């Protein structure tokens, strides 16, 4: 399968960023949104290299004659199902339809798709212009060649794909991330370590290493015998609650959502949010360039 013509449905942060990346890598890109005002606003956020290479439209014929449609509308099951019921019949029979959901069931979404064998998840990570990973998630009917086509597409745009063979809640990355957050918040809750200390453990220890080696590679280097013996005494003591962590629940109930509200586990009032975001992006770019070379 040859992918050259791509339509991105949804012009939020993820949508316009994907359009930008595909356009900069030579693809014929349409960015579709149901509101013209949204399209007008995101034009100013597209990189200069892609600015004149993206077509913007609210017309539904944007889904005809395309090789790939990537849906990136609001992260709501009902909205996505309604979108697929209306739009998937408009898509060519030989096209591929992908969703950028971060956790909704691919099998459930596939129920509303005309050709589920040509449907799969294509989960990008924020900020998508900097994070290399794309999770490619198959539903029960996804054809192997469809998954392989999207895998190769991810490589072509200089991303690092991971194929998720079975649709499970949270896929792979979010399951690992929430397992870490659960343990970290239990340590903070019990007074073992501060919020700042917990982040230091990740940034300067585990996270620093994991930028180069995955956890299983790390175990190989450390010695599986060592990890076996540590597991024997440590596994029974790890946090295994099935509930939302207490500290996270308290933040949610207080309306402290993080950068977007000016307060989370840290203070982002005034210009602190802008500075924190800029610092994050500079560090991510430096890591990307150091490990993978100049970003495309």
TrEMBL record:
Transmembrane segments: none
InterPro entries noted in UniProt: 3-OHacyl-CoA_DH, 3-OHacyl-CoA_DH_CS, 3-OHacyl-CoA_DH_NAD-bd, 3HC_DH_C, 6-PGluconate_DH-like_C_sf, 6PGD_dom2, NAD(P)-bd_dom_sf
Family membership noted in the UniProt record: Belongs to the 3-hydroxyacyl-CoA dehydrogenase family.
GO biological process: butyrate metabolic process
Site (Important for catalytic activity): 123
Residue ranges of every copy of the 3-hydroxyacyl-CoA dehydrogenase C-terminal domain listed in the record: 170-268
Presence of keyword Oxidoreductase: yes
Protein name as annotated: 3-hydroxyacyl-CoA dehydrogenase family protein
UniProt keyword annotation of Cell inner membrane present: no
Pathway assigned to this chain's UniProt record: Lipid metabolism; butanoate metabolism
GO molecular-function terms, A-Z: NAD+ binding; oxidoreductase activity, acting on the CH-OH group of donors, NAD or NADP as acceptor
Positions of the 3-hydroxyacyl-CoA dehydrogenase NAD binding domain: 5-167
């Amino acid at each position: 399968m040859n992918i050259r013509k791509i339509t991105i449905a949804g012009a939020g942060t993820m949508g316009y960023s994907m359009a930008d990346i595909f356009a900069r890598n030579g693809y014929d890109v349409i960015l579709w949104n149901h509101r013209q005002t949204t399209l007008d606003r995101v034009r100013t956020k597209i990189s200069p290299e892609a600015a004149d290479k993206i077509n913007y439209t609210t017309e539904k014929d944007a889904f005809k004659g395309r090789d790939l449609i990537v849906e990136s509308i609001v992260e709501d099951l009902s909205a996505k199902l309604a979108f697929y019921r209306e739009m998937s019949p408009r898509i060519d029979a030989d096209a591929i339809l992908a969703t950028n959901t971060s956790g909704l069931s691919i099998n459930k979404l596939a129920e509303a798709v005309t050709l589920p064998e040509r449907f799969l998840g294509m989960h990008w990570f924020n900020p998508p212009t900097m994070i290399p990973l794309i999770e490619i998630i198959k539903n029960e009917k996804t054809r192997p060649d469809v998954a392989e086509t999207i895998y190769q597409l991810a490589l072509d745009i200089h991303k690092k794909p991971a194929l998720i063979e079975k649709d499970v809640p949270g896929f792979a990355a979010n399951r690992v991330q929430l397992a870490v957050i659960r343990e970290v918040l239990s340590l903070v809750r019990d007074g073992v370590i501060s919020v700042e200390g917990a982040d230091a453990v990740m940034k300067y220890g585990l996270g620093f290493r994991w930028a180069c080696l995955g956890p299983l590679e790390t175990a190989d280097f450390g010695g599986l015998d060592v990890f076996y013996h540590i597991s024997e005494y440590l596994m029974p003591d790890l946090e295994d609650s099935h509930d939302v962590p207490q500290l996270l629940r308290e933040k949610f109930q207080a309306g402290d959502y993080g950068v977007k509200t000016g307060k989370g586990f840290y203070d982002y009032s005034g210009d602190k949010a802008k500075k924190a975001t800029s610092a994050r992006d500079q560090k991510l770019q430096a890591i990307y360039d150091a490990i993978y070379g100049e970003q495309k």
